[in-house]
């Protein structure tokens, strides 16, 4: 039996950006009706490769074949015409349009909209039945959750009759149950003969859903394997180029006295929306408290309040002493003085000044320290020397204190922030998304540093949207949903299913499958919003 | 986007921009039937060919140093202070009040007092837009522009109705007392045995301007406040993370910026006119924007750019005096320089970046 003609075949694709060779002589063949995973660290070249396939970039060299015939893809219009659909990590939807209008946008039949919309409504219904892609056609995008928004993106591609679907990190914004729901849909699409390319950095997803997996490292395709014949450890090694410890090595915690106590913390934002609705949390010395939740449920606001970036009401005590929650007495300086260090969620916008050199960033937030000055003048040379030492200690590469922050990779940027926040021996450490956009090799190091600080008796609040990270690093887990703490669990006594339901705001065990409960909740939410619009 | 080497960013780009502006200016001069080569020669001899010319060039440059520094300090916090003109006008008011109403026995004391007065009034004039930006979110560009008009109207009122000597037809203050007369470069250089033109207006304020360059450099790169100003300019969320109050820092930055712009008045009002007249600033506040842009907001760059614009001002005046090239064309030439060095930065930058990328590739191959 001859193998079927590949749905997509790439031969010798190369692409450089200036001196950076993002893709080097990449060849890839994807069989029709399969799910092909592409895995690799940040900057390995996955997104560049897919951008070439979707017509955003032109390859410097190489050929593309779609269904066995050579294809020239100068722009995304050509990609769509060739039957390729793409679901981006950040959705490309018009927030103020309805689901139906978004599906039709750019694929209208003519100048008159009404017939197009009617036709779209019919085919949307057909697609929904065929692939179990349930959406509310007349809801506004801004009113529906991310899970449903993602289904709209998939429907957009299918409406344009895509036979090949590329998904770029599709689960980054989803709860575990929503991710399960997505995988059910992908499975269904595969069974109906669609070809799917799944780009991810999560090994678990590759193992769960793909038929074949390709590993990229530093712009090269290092291996392509049938998923059934590999395992996470082997894939991790192929990605990083050395053996990687996937589990966090830590002993049981010995929690001490309460270091930080929050009572009824509430935040109302500029638009009058309640972001935190009375948060009660106790953080003990010598433990890591993991705060799980889907992005946008108030965890960012909580970190901002604790870190002194945002005013709040309620009560906050550190080692029994009350801290201000508004005004200058509650700013970042005051928090640092109270012994709270803060590794923020967004290191590029908050934790670092990207244009500043590493040594300048190494005192960011601590620049008031009189030891850094003689008279009115900052001791720049001494600060830079000390920063160089810190960078050696925290394995920042390259350890060049005169390099601007933007010239470091994501993992090394994070190490600069960690070095700054950890070296001053804080009583309490707030850590937001410590490994977002960080490669596997650096993750190992960052996790071990966090555990080391815990073992030194410090209190650590870990906020992460990666449930794996919460599960493996925390000594205690709290789940946040819609500005409230839904509950607390111990890592040994819970599982991803239970946490996932809490993250979706569902308490207790429902008598239906989790994905169904989540989908019902999504529809209920959309309907509630619709009603409130009148 | 490929990055340029540092030297190309600082030296090559302004130079290429200048050459482009010069070429275009030459074409315009050709188009009206004059000889561009002769025009350039005239500008150079007029502005740089004698100590008299230098005296004027440096006098103008001193004005631009102050207003250029004012714009750059604000820009480090990403505040676009367009109000240098109004702040310099108010600085003039401060100088006039000090010189006319304080008993000052010697020019050195007068200079210190007048500098303080000029800086204070300029700072107050920038404080209001700064405060409005920080607390009310009123855009600094809009408010500082509006404050230029208010400043002009205010000075108009004060000079016509309150400060004009009785019986005088001219809307200006009386002449300042002779004790407040600032030494010119001629007075300063004579003891050193260096002959300098007696008639040129460049004066001791130039040294104050140079001192201001050094102080601004120290402020921005060597003090905690400068660190905070730069951090805020790059990222406001970052500043909040680090406990740098954005509102507080904006107000402080604008006060410093306004004080610098106001400081210009010791040169034009005290050093040259020796009384406060209407429209004493002659647009120097706006030239400061171009000077800061061209000088890359670095005090040393500002100094060089200020001297260049001083040359253009003085050379342009000579052209208008000795040729049929109309005064307006001088403004066109100045505008072209501003356009190329300030606004059209990317037009030069991108091709240059491509050239450098190609060179790099060639080396690697």
List keywords for this structure.
heterodimer; A: about 525 residues; alpha/beta; Rossmann fold; 3 domains; 6-stranded mixed sheet; 18 helices; about 35% helix; globular; B: about 375 residues; mainly alpha; 16 helices
How do the helices and strands line up, and which of them pair or pack?
The complex is a heterodimer of chains A (534) and B (365).
Chain A: E1 8-17, E2 20-30, E3 35-40, H1 46-53, E4 61-66, E5 69-71, H2 76-81, E6 84-87, H3 99-104, H4 113-131, H5 146-159, E7 164-168, H6 176-191, E8 195-200, H7 203-209, E9 212-217, E10 220-226, H8 232-240, E11 258-268, E12 274-284, E13 288-292, H9 299-307, E14 313-318, E15 321-322, H10 332-337, E16 340-343, H11 347-351, H12 358-361, E17 373-374, E18 377-378, H13 380-393, H14 410-423, E19 428-432, H15 440-455, E20 459-464, H16 467-473, E21 476-481, E22 484-489, H17 496-503, H18 514-533
Helix pairs in contact in A: 6-18, 14-15
Chain B: H1 6-31, H2 36-48, H3 51-76, H4 84-101, H5 107-136, H6 140-163, H7 185-189, H8 205-222, H9 224-234, H10 236-241, H11 246-263, H12 265-273, H13 284-294, H14 299-322, H15 327-343, H16 345-364
Which structural class do the helices and strands of chain A define? alpha/beta
Name the overall outline of chain B: globular
The sequence of SSEs of chain B as H and E is HHHHHHHHHHHHHHHH
- Kindly report the CATH topology of the largest domain in chain A: Rossmann fold
The count of DSSP E runs of length 2 or more, i.e. the number of strands of chain B, is 0
First-residue to last-residue Cα separation of chain A? 61 Å
| Tally of separate helices of chain B | 16
Distance between the termini of chain B: 20 Å
Helix- and strand-based class of chain B?
mainly alpha
Provide the spatial order of strands within the biggest beta sheet of chain A. 6-7-8-3-9-10
Beta-strand percentage range of chain A = 15-25%
Radius of gyration over C-alpha positions of chain B, nearest whole angstrom: 21 Å
- Largest inter-chain contact set: A-B, 33 and 23 residues
């Amino acid at each position: 039996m001859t193998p079927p003609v590949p749905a997509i075949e790439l031969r010798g694709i190369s692409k450089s950006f200036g001196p950076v060779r993002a893709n080097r002589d990449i060849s890839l063949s994807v069989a029709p009706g399969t799910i092909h995973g592409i895995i690799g660290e940040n900057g390995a070249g996955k997104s560049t490769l897919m951008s070439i396939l979707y017509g955003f970039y032109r390859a410097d060299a190489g050929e593309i074949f779609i269904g066995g015939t050579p294809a020239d893809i100068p722009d995304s219009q050509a990609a769509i015409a060739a039957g390729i659909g793409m679901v981006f990590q950040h959705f490309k939807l018009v927030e103020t349009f309805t689901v139906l209008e978004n599906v039709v946008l750019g694929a209208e039949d003519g100048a008159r909209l009404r017939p197009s919309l009617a036709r779209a409504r019919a085919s949307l219904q057909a697609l929904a039945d065929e692939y179990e892609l349930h959406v509310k056609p007349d809801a506004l995008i801004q009113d529906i959750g991310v899970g449903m928004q993602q289904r709209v993106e998939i429907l957009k591609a299918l409406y344009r009759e895509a036979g090949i679907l590329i998904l770029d990190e599709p689960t980054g914004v989803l709860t575990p149950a929503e991710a399960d729901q997505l995988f059910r849909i992908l499975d269904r699409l595969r069974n109906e003969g669609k070809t799917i390319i799944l780009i991810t950095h999560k090994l678990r997803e590759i193992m769960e859903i793909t038929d074949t997996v390709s590993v990229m490292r530093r712009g090269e395709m290092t291996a392509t394997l049938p998923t059934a014949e590999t395992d996470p450890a082997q894939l991790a090694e192929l990605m990083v180029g050395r053996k990687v410890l996937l589990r966090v090595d830590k002993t049981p915690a010995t929690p001490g006295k309460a270091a930080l106590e929050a009572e009824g913390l509430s935040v109302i934002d500029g638009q009058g929306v309640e972001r935190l609705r009375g948060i009660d949390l106790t953080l003990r010395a010598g433990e890591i408290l993991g705060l799980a939740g889907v992005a946008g449920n108030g965890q960012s606001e909580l970190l901002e309040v604790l870190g002194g970036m945002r005013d709040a009401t309620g009560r906050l005590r550190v080692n029994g002493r009350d801290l201000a929650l508004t005004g200058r007495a509650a700013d970042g300086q005051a928090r640092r003085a109270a012994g709270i260090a803060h590794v923020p969620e967004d290191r590029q916008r908050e934790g670092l000044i990207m244009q500043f050199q590493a040594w300048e960033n190494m005192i960011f937030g601590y620049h008031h320290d009189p030891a850094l000055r003689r008279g009115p003048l900052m001791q720049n040379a001494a600060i830079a020397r000390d920063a160089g030492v810190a960078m050696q200690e925290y394995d920042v590469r390259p350890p060049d204190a005169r390099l601007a922050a933007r010239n470091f990779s994501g993992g090394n940027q994070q190490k600069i922030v960690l070095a700054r926040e950890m070296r001053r021996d804080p009583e309490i450490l707030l850590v937001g998304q410590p490994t977002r956009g960080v490669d596997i090799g650096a993750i190992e190091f960052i996790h071990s540093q966090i555990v080391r600080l815990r073992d030194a008796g410090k209190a650590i609040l870990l906020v992460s949207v990666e449930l794996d990270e919460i599960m493996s690093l925390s000594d205690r887990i709290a789940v946040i949903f819609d500005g409230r703490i839904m509950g607390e669990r111990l890592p040994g006594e819970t599982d991803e299913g239970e946490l996932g339901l809490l993250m979706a705001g569902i308490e207790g065990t429902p008598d239906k499958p989790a994905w169904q409960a989540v989908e019902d909740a999504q529809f209920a939410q959309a309907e509630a919003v619709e009603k409130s619009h009148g | 986007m490929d990055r340029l080497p540092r030297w190309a960013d600082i030296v090559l780009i302004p130079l290429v921009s200048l050459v482009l502006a010069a070429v275009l200016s030459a074409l315009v001069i050709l188009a009206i039937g004059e000889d561009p080569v002769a025009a350039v020669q005239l500008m150079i001899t007029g502005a740089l060919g004698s100590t008299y010319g230098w005296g004027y060039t440096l006098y103008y440059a001193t004005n631009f140093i102050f207003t250029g520094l004012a714009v750059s300090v604000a820009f480090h916090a990403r505040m676009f202070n367009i109000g240098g003109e109004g702040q310099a006008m108010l600085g003039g008011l401060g100088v006039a009040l000090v010189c006319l109403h304080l008993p000052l026995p010697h020019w050195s004391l007068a200079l210190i007092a007048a500098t303080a007065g000029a800086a204070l009034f300029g700072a107050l004039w920038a404080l209001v837009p700064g405060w409005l930006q920080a607390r009310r979110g009123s855009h600094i560009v809009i408010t500082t522009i509006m404050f230029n008009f208010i400043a002009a109207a205010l000075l108009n009122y004060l000079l016509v109705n309150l400060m004009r000597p009785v019986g005088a037809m001219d809307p200006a203050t009386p002449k300042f007392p002779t004790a407040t007369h600032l030494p010119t470069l001629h007075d300063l250089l004579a003891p050193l045995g260096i002959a300098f033109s007696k008639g040129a207006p460049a004066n001791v304020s130039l040294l104050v301007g140079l001192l201001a360059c050094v102080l601004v450099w120290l402020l921005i790169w060597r003090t905690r406040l400068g660190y905070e100003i730069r951090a805020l300019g790059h990222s406001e969320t970052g500043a909040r993370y680090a406990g740098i109050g954005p509102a507080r820092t904006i107000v402080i930055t604008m006060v410093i910026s306004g004080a610098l712009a106001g400081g210009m008045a010791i040169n034009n009002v005290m050093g040259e006119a020796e009384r406060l007249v209407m429209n004493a600033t002659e647009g120097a506040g706006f030239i400061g924007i171009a000077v800061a842009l061209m000088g890359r907001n670095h005090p040393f760059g500002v100094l060089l750019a200020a001297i260049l614009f001083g040359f253009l001002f003085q050379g342009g005046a000579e052209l208008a005096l000795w040729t049929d090239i109309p005064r307006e064309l001088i403004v066109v030439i100045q505008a072209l320089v501003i356009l190329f060095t300030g606004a059209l930065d990317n037009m030069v930058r991108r091709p240059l970046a491509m050239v450098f990328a190609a060179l790099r590739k060639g080396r690697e191959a």
